[in-house]
């Protein structure tokens, strides 16, 4: 695209490249390449270790592009978020729990307590493909531009996996009722468990426990993360090695100084500043 400076009338051509961000379907990072250098804006992202190295568009020839500045998703840029189980680990944990419950009888159903938002599609798709059970959702229209998911979700309540919502769905659940109102099928009461996707993290020296945690008689929490962990952020940045880095967000309880203390040593500008005077 062509940019014109309104005051000087100077023109500059900028090339903008969209890279997959792994945050939710369609999420992208922006790479801006212009005469004054290259900037990468990650937006919200979750990239596994080594994933940046496999992105051809971040490279020219065999080398990573010379990137001046990175604007980085620092949601979990704190050592306490050192490790977050990978997408595959989390997905498999949920899959096995849903499989073992729904295979007991057809009256054993699962409620996925997901916030009404994008990002769980690949979970729905994976469960539906592996188990042959479609996922009940309130409305299909929010997915109308994602044809690949439409086959895996349904508005028919007679299914064993639900991701439907109700304004007071925690109350529903307490009364053994699904948010869509289902309590029984053919006169047989349903046995319902709920699984709440939430981020779980492990410190560097912490023992990694299961990606599924039982929180009550029929409630579970399952690991799920839309953002890169501390070690994934460091891996990404030390691969890109920009001159400068700017955090897009502050981690919960963190300060900008603390985040910069972590990120600066991974930038090229650090060496110069750190040289003895
Ligand atoms: Zn988001
Ligand atoms: Zn439902």
**DSSP E strands, number:** 18
Which runs of at least 5 residues are low in confidence (pLDDT < 50)? none
Task: Return the domain count.
Answer: 2
Helix vs. strand class = alpha/beta
Largest sheet: 7 strands, mixed
Put simply, the count of helices is: 7
Give the SSE order as H and E letters. EEEEEEEEHEHEHEEHEEEEEHEHH
Mean of all residue-level pLDDT scores: 90
Cofactors and ligands present? zinc ion
Query: Any idea of the CATH class of the largest domain?
Result: Alpha Beta
- Shape, principal axes of CA atoms: elongated
Give the name of the CATH architecture of the largest domain: 3-Layer(aba) Sandwich
At the fold tier of CATH, the topology name of the largest domain is Rossmann fold
Distance between the amino and carboxyl termini: 43 Å
Which strand order do you get reading across the main beta sheet?
11-10-12-9-15-17-16
Radius of gyration, in Å, reads 23 Å
Strand content: 15-25%
Protein name: Protein artemis
Subcellular location: Nucleus
Keywords: DNA damage, DNA recombination, DNA repair, Endonuclease, Exonuclease, Hydrolase, Nuclease, Nucleus
Pfam families: DRMBL
Summarize the structure.
The protein has helices at about 85-100, 120-130, 145-150, 170-175, 230-240, 255-265, 270-275, and strands at about 1-5, 10-15, 15-20, 30-35, 35-40, 60, 65, 70, 110, 135, 155, 160, 185, 190, 190-200, 210-215, 220-225, 245. With about 280 residues, it is an alpha/beta fold. The strands form 5 sheets. Strands 11-10-12-9-15-17-16 form a 7-stranded mixed beta sheet. Strands 3-4-5-8-18 form a 5-stranded mixed beta sheet. A two-stranded antiparallel sheet has the order 1-2.
């Amino acid at each position: 695209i062509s940019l014109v400076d309104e005051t000087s009338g100077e023109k500059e051509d900028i090339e903008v490249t969209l890279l997959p961000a792994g945050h939710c379907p369609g999420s992208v990072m922006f790479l801006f390449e212009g005469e004054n250098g290259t900037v990468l804006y990650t937006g919200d992202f979750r990239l596994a270790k080594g994933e940046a190295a496999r992105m051809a568009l971040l490279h020219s020839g065999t080398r990573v592009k010379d990137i001046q500045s990175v604007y980085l998703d620092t949601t979990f840029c704190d050592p306490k978020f050192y490790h977050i189980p990978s997408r595959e680990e989390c997905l498999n944990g949920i899959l096995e729990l849903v499989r073992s419950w729904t295979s007991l009888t057809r009256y054993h159903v699962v409620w996925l307590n997901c916030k009404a938002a994008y990002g769980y599609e690949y979970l729905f798709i994976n469960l539906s493909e592996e188990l042959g059970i479609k996922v009940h959702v309130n409305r299909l229209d929010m997915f109308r531009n994602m044809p690949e998911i439409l086959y895996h979700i349904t508005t028919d309540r007679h299914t064993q996996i639900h991701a439907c919502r109700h304004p007071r769905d925690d109350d529903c659940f307490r009364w053994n009722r699904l948010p869509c109102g289902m309590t029984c099928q053919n006169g047989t009461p349903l046995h319902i468990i709920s699984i709440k996707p939430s981020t779980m993290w492990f410190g560097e020296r912490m023992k990694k426990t299961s990606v599924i945690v039982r929180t009550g008689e029929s409630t579970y929490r399952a690991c799920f993360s839309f953002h890169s962990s501390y070690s994934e952020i460091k891996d990404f940045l030390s691969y890109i090695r920009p001159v400068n880095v700017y955090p897009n967000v502050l981690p919960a309880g963190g300060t900008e100084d603390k985040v910069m203390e972590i990120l600066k040593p991974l930038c090229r500008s650090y060496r110069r500043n750190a040289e003895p005077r």
